[in-house]
């Protein structure tokens, strides 16, 4: 069996890199969490089987994650996105602490004289030879520690029901004119990063939504509207995502067709918790 075949189970089919946070999707295949979430937001289907996938169906594979973590620690890998070579941990290398240089030992023993200029230089060289590698090793260890830190997305959830008691907009001049009930939710982002929004219909209603920065103006639906990196909507689900900075946002949830009411749920996935008000 070739090394490529041996490593196949540890490689994400999207990123082609060793897993950091592997998850099993509804199609039965395993992907890197961030990669498959972005794929679902953009396409809504499996990259392999083309069947419909849902972000909330992703299940973390803890056993594979630990295996991949050990695999990364025993391998030299290359990250093409960051143009960085990742080395194995330093503790894998064995250093012979008893090895000495007989020539230097002999010089120190026979010629050690603080009044001798050549010996002063020798002492400086010896001290420098210990201090410099120690500083270098400390820097490398810290860099490796940072490179092995897993970035795991956090999912925040919210649910409610659209009823005739909600605010509404009477829209005309569109494909489906009429009354659209809506709910606005304040979303506070505390950490910059990519956030994916998934609004799911929990009833017979069609569902839609838009995100606004700072505030929502019901008389001008284009004011403060965010231009999405991804957006895909159908009758029962709406997906969208973007790179958001730390700020206050307003999510307006409504229906795709007019005059509808029903329950819905919201999932927001990103690098930190999202708070709803």
TrEMBL record:
<keyword id="KW-1133">Transmembrane helix</keyword>
<keyword id="KW-0812">Transmembrane</keyword>
<feature type="transmembrane region" description="Helical">
    <location>
        <begin position="122"/>
        <end position="144"/>
    </location>
</feature>
<dbReference type="Pfam" id="PF04564">
    <property type="entry name" value="U-box"/>
</dbReference>
<dbReference type="GO" id="GO:0016567">
    <property type="term" value="P:protein ubiquitination"/>
</dbReference>
<dbReference type="InterPro" id="IPR052085">
    <property type="entry name" value="WD-SAM-U-box"/>
</dbReference>
<keyword id="KW-0472">Membrane</keyword>
<feature type="domain" description="U-box">
    <location>
        <begin position="5"/>
        <end position="81"/>
    </location>
</feature>
<dbReference type="InterPro" id="IPR013083">
    <property type="entry name" value="Znf_RING/FYVE/PHD"/>
</dbReference>
<dbReference type="InterPro" id="IPR003613">
    <property type="entry name" value="Ubox_domain"/>
</dbReference>
<dbReference type="GO" id="GO:0004842">
    <property type="term" value="F:ubiquitin-protein transferase activity"/>
</dbReference>
<protein>
    <recommendedName>
        <fullName>U-box domain-containing protein</fullName>
    </recommendedName>
</protein>
């Amino acid at each position: 069996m070739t090394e490529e075949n041996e490593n196949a189970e540890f490689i994400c089919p999207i990123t082609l890199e060793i897993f950091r946070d592997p998850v099993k999707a509804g199609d039965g295949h395993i992907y890197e969490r961030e990669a498959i979430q972005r794929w679902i937001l953009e396409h809504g289907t499996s990259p392999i089987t083309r069947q419909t996938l849902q972000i909330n169906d992703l299940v973390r594979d803890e056993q594979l994650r630990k295996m991949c973590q050990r695999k990364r620690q025993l391998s030299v890998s290359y990250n093409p996105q960051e143009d960085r070579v990742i080395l194995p941990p330093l503790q894998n290398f064995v250093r012979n602490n008893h090895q000495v240089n007989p020539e230097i030992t002999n010089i120190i023993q026979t010629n050690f004289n603080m009044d001798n200029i050549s010996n002063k230089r020798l002492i400086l060289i010896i001290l420098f030879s210990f201090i410099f590698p120690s500083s270098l090793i400390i820097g490398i260890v810290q860099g490796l520690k940072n490179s092995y830190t897993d970035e795991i997305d956090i999912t925040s959830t919210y649910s409610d029901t659209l009823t005739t008691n909600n605010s509404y907009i009477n829209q005309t001049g569109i494909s489906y004119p009429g009354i659209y009930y809506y709910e606005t939710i304040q979303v506070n982002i505390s950490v910059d990063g990519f956030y994916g929004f998934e609004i799911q219909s929990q009833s017979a209603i069609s569902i839609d939504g838009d995100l606004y920065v700072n505030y929502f103006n019901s008389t001008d639906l284009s004011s403060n509207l965010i231009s999405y990196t991804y957006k895909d909507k159908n009758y029962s689900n709406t997906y969208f995502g973007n790179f958001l900075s730390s700020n206050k946002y307003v999510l307006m949830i409504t229906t795709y067709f007019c005059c509808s009411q029903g329950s819905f749920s919201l999932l927001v996935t990103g690098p930190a918790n999202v708070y709803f008000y």
